[in-house]
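Quick one - first record:
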Amino acid sequence: MKWLIDELKRIKREHLYRKLRILETGQVSRVRVGGRQLLMLSSNNYLGLTEHPLVKMATVDAVKKYGTGSGGSRLVTGTNDLYISLEKTLADFKGVERCLVFSAGYLANIACLTSLMKKGDVILSDSLNHASIIDGCRLSDADVKVYAHRNMEHLRCLLKESTQYRHRLIVTDGLFSMDGDLAPLPEIVELAEDFDALVMVDDAHATGVFGKKRSGTVEYFGMHDKIDIQMGTLSKALGSMGGYVAGREELIEYLINIARSFIFTTALPPAAVGAAIAAINVVQQEDPAKKLWKNVREYTTSLNNGGLSLATNSQIIPILIGETVCSTYGKKAGALIRNEDVTCAVAERLFERGLYVTAIRPPSVPKGKERIRTTLMSTHSRQDVHTAADIILETLGEYGLL
């Protein structure tokens, strides 16, 4: 397959090649790679729950009682009483009638978009939505219209142009995974009511972090009775694995009977289910997000004081490199000094200096929006936060990017 070799050469030539780094520890604040200790600044384990004693104990207990595997799909042998407990816990947590757990968040988004939206329908999707939403839109038989990121005027125009469709669905991330900004849910809901559209929110990165109960952006904005479909994951702040859809009884019953990514996928192993139940209980009883938000404030304050201008208001703090290259070196030089090259070089330098970070390049983000995506955890110490900020500022200064 010579064409595969040629494609890999092209990917390397364009500095878009990716390789796996092997961690010798779990998702802790300081990890070990190749015998070196590094400060972890890339994990989605925002609340540190993968290492929480109660979550680990629940995982072990689930394996002791139910074994290591589920034995089949949810409709065959995969739904045990532990699953039912998780779905009830999630429904109470999200403030909905019912929840349905999937084997991955990706599968949950695919399920909703392909099962609910058919030929003659239209999906209106934010331009920076997660890849699983984009793929769900592509796999559905519905027409798809993409509105500019968080641009409510553009969304309004597209809704005006879409009145001929049978059903309209607006879908958005609640918290955008690469930019760290929030969807304007109140404005989206207002438009949905004006144009008789459904609203679906992917709250993967906000669950456990936002809202008084920490159930996500829907609660944060007080939109519980206004959002038709809530999707989320168990694999980020909740420290386990899997995804879920939350909503009305009839929505869940429909997905059980129609959604191919639910029907034909093996159920989560008992360990993941037990861990998720324990994680939700820890979120509600201990509120580890309180420490996370303290870390966010100290980290962003340090970076802003050091010369960066950060617009994020979450635990996801991107350091934009692509835009900075052009503004620093000028458009002509920016074309010669590739954004991807600089982004990879900065990431490698940060890695050398003890920070575990990742260079985010196309297709994960649009060209010209290359970045170092940094994330914080509640388990980071105050010293960790300030050390990370100092190293980032010094490194950006070396490259003339402040």
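second record:
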Amino acid sequence: MVMSTDKLFDPLRRKEVAATAEERVRQWFISVLLNDCAVPAHLMMSEAPLQFGAKKWRADILVYDRNGKALAVVECKRPEVDIDSSVAAQAMRYNMVLNVRWLILTNGVKTLIFRRDGPAFKAFGSLPLYEQMLCQQ
């Protein structure tokens, strides 16, 4: 939901935020998770703070299971940023803290979905519904 040309309303943070290129991608993907994947809004967080040792990070979007455990991490980039191994490495750093089942990387043009398969993540063909995210083991 656009509030003005330079601000967007983030429904997860419940406030206006600067409408940067990356933020536009983040807000678009939040709407995909809400509308297409049926993820309950109260089970998502944007700009979620994480800490690993002395390092502090912010995950673009976290999706939680019904028990409040992180289920998926979404890393958003500006449309002109390639979704490559450095983006995957960033999501994997977050996973060191979170131990999620799903990693999703998007720049608004290209979206890659990975599901945990044992100790590794493997490409998953399409974005799952929230119920499928919960069931896939």
